[in-house]
Amino acid sequence: MSGDDEYYYDTDDAFNFYQELWGGRNLHLGHYPVDYVPSVECVLEASDKSMNYLIDTLAPALTPGENGTERRKAVDMGSAYGGCARAMATRFGCEVLCVDMSVRENEICRKQTKEANLDHLVKCPTELSFLDTGAPDESMDAVFSMDSFLHAGAAVMKEVARVLKPGGIAAFTDPMRSDGVSKAKLHEVFKRVPGLENMGTPSGYVTGGTEHGLRLHRFEDRTDDMARHYAAVHSVLENARDKGTLQGKVSDAFIAKMLSGLKTWSEQAYKRNLTWGLMVFIKPVDTPSA
Q1: What Rg, from alpha-carbon coordinates, does the chain have?
Q2: What is the CB neighbour count within 10 angstroms for residue 190?
Q3: CA-closest candidate to residue 159, choices 174, 178, 140
Q4: Residue 52: phi, psi to the nearest 5?
Q5: pLDDT, tens digit, for every residue of 92-138?
């Protein structure tokens, strides 16, 4: 982001859209029942379910040792409002470094973290990139991210591997370009998010992780949830537009563009041109030399 460009997530339209219609605590996709009924509450509940599922995945890395005195450390790459970081700290008593480029989201993260009395555990020092978190080498027991890596793709795996301790776990969800699907085929998908020109692929993350010493432990395809999520948000946005609840908060032009984009993302997920799921990597402990 240059000094002359306003970061997309800090624009009034995008900021207010995500605050009003994405639940206000997180910006990631959710786990939905087949018979879901679209609403802001439905989106928030689904987002909490996917977040808690990821938290369960990291339990082996973040659960305190037997003596209970060793505080584990984690980094949230793309932390947004800090909802996932606070949930992680609450469950495990671990320290969490929040990494995000949005000034406004970081302000909310710090405010909500202080209100939750978790500012001794959850740190949001300044605007940081998940390509350069500033964390020391091999300092983190866990690395996690929910639907942020698409802005960098497999290049992020170098930093993930650098900060992760041997034996540590990296777990993330991400909207991905399906393997074998060309960038050109997803041109309309990329138009929804300014600056988005490509996405990572499942195989690309695996290759990137392997190149930097990480081993894929599990990939869980949840693309049906991706399709439901964007369809749900599309329905919620349409309802808000028709009732006029976004008047003065989100421009008509943004709403029209977002409705078109959400429909495209949902359709492309149903067609399996997009993929969404949970990827879990482990950094092996080096085998001692003889």
Answers
A1: 19
A2: 18
A3: 140
A4: -65, -30
A5: 999 999 999 989 899 999 999 999 999 999 999 999 998 999 999 99
